[in-house]
Amino acid sequence: MILTDDEKAMLDGDRGAVVATAMRLLVRYGDVLGADRFVDTDNVCGANVFGPKQSSVLGTTDPDALFSEFSLDSAEVLPIPPVLAHSCQLIGPMDTRRPEVQRLAD
């Protein structure tokens, strides 16, 4: 893939480990799909659902561990970063007994 200087910097870790890990995954996707470059966008969606099934696979309810494994394809636990683009969650259950898991409570 042809990357811009900014994309190369992100891939090289200039914005931290979690961004570099995400960029490695995006480059892998792009390579598999035969993409020449990324499309500049400020509108992204996700469908991450980290419930009991995913927790049982990893043996943890830690949101960072679940995000790292299932969203970044990374065994290294990385902190969930703040989003930098307009972002929507397409699917997501509400845990009314443990809202802190989804960071809905202080």
Question: Which structural traits does this protein have?
Answer:
single chain; two-stranded parallel sheet; 106 residues; mainly alpha; 2 strands; elongated
Textual characterization of the structure:
The protein is mainly alpha-helical and 106 residues long. 39% of the residues lie in helices and 8% in strands. It has four helices and two strands, in the order H-H-E-H-H-E. It has helices spanning 5-11, 17-33, 52-58, 63-72, and strands spanning 43-46, 86-89. A two-stranded parallel ribbon has the order 1-2. The chain starts with a helix and ends in a 17-residue tail after the last strand.
Helices and strands in order:
Elements: H1 5-11, H2 17-33, E1 43-46, H3 52-58, H4 63-72, E2 86-89
Parallel strand pairs: 1-2
